[in-house]
Structures are given as C-alpha cells and as structure tokens.
Amino acid sequence: MTAPIPISLHVNGERVDALVPPRLNLADFLREHLHLTGTHVGCEHGVCGACTVRVNDEIVRSCLMLAVQTQGASVQTIEGLSDSGEITDLQESFRGRNALQCGYCTPGMLMAAQDLLRRLPAPSREEIREHLSGNYCRCTGYHAIIDAVEATADARRGSAR
Ligand code: FES
Ligand code: FES
Q1: Ligand approaching nearest to the C-alpha of 26
Q2: Which ligand 2 atom is the nearest neighbour of the CA of 103?
Q3: Is 47 in the pocket of ligand 1 (CB under 6 A)?
Q4: 132 lines ligand 2 (CB under 6 A)
Q5: Is 105 close to ligand 2, i.e. is its CB under 6 Å away?
Q6: What is the mean pLDDT of the segment spanning 119-136?
Q7: Which residues does residue 20 pair with via DSSP β-bridges, in sequence order?
Q8: Tell me, what's the pLDDT at 142?
Q9: Are 30 and 39 in contact (CB under 8 A)?
Q10: pLDDT, tens only, 34-84
Q11: Does residue 50 have its Cβ closer than 6 Å to ligand 1?
Q12: Which ligand gives the minimal distance to the CA of 49?
C-alpha cells in the first residue's frame, strides 16, 4: 500500500484540500471524491474525450492525469463552466440543434468546443471538425455538433460587433 498524498488545488474557483492515493486519476478524483459527475469516463485511455476538463486554462483528458499532478492547479469542470454562464449560449445551441442525444459525450464536447471558441472566434467548419476530432459521439453523427458550434461562433461575433 502506498500512503495517500495531500493535495491542494482550486476546483471551479473553490479551494480543495484532499488526501489522495498516488495512482488516483483526476477523472475519478473529480467524480468520486468531489461528486462532480458531469465529467464522464468512457474509454479510460485518452481516446474518447468524455473526461475533458480544464487545468490551468488548457483542456486535458482527466483520465490520463493523476490527481496528485493537480497540486496547486486551477481545475474547471463542466459544472464550473455551466454555473458561471460561460457556455450558456453554447449549451442552448446544442439543445436547439439536437447536438446531443444520450448526452454522454456532451460535457467533453462542450469543454472542447468552448476551448476552440476562446482561441479562434471565427473557426471554419473544418477547424471545428478538427478540434473536436478527439471527442467521440456515438449518437449524433457530428453534423449537428458542428452546426451548433458554428452557430455559437457566429452569434458571439454578432453580439461582439
Ligand atoms: S475517458 Fe478519458 S479520453 Fe476517454
Ligand atoms: S450524444 Fe450520445 S454519445 Fe454523443
């Protein structure tokens, strides 16, 4: 048995202090220790993107990161982005365009889409497709997702004018 390790970090703006097993991954830490179950776990080996979260402003696959690696970090999950209103328009666009069905991929899709829109306010459909290519959806066929992201980008640019 390896002794638990103390970590301190911020999650969705709140300070968290915890004792974690050294091999606990970030996805399980968020879901099981902090009960932030919006972060989903699909493949558990970095392929599907369902577990995408933000760490220090970069999106990462939380199934591939250890909880202990977030010592001192700022982590944002889908709950944080949703509660802050940062992605309300994107969520509405997903809903309005049927860009989700079972919803399993949706938190990771939204995290990845918002990451793109922050970096590239006017992405082409190809750029959207490319940026989301690491997020798998088994339901929608992707077109509706691309439509929703493109519509959000257009609307944000319109309201920024
Ligand atoms: S669960 Fe992390 S990439 Fe699939
Ligand atoms: S909506 Fe079901 S996996 Fe994407």
Answers
A1: 1
A2: 1
A3: yes
A4: no
A5: yes
A6: 98
A7: 5
A8: 96
A9: yes
A10: 999 999 999 999 999 999 999 999 999 999 999 999 999 999 999 999 999
A11: yes
A12: 1
Task: Give residue 123's Cα distance to chain centre.
Answer: 19
Question: 13 — phi, psi (to 5°)?
Answer: 85, -5
Q: What is the DSSP string of 6-39?
A: EEEEEETTEEEEEEE-TT-BHHHIIIIIS--TTS
Q: For residue 150, give the nearest of 130, 128, 135 by alpha carbon.
A: 128
For the full predicted model, state whether its pTM sits above 0.90. yes
> Under DSSP, is residue 61 helix (H, G, I), strand (E, B) or coil?
strand
DSSP 4: P
**Ligand 1 centroid distance, CA of 29 (Å):** 14
Helix segments in 36-121, DSSP class H: 78-84, 88-96, 106-119
* Residue carrying the six token digits 């309005």: 96
Q: Is the dihedral of CA 31, 3, 70, 8 positive or negative?
A: positive
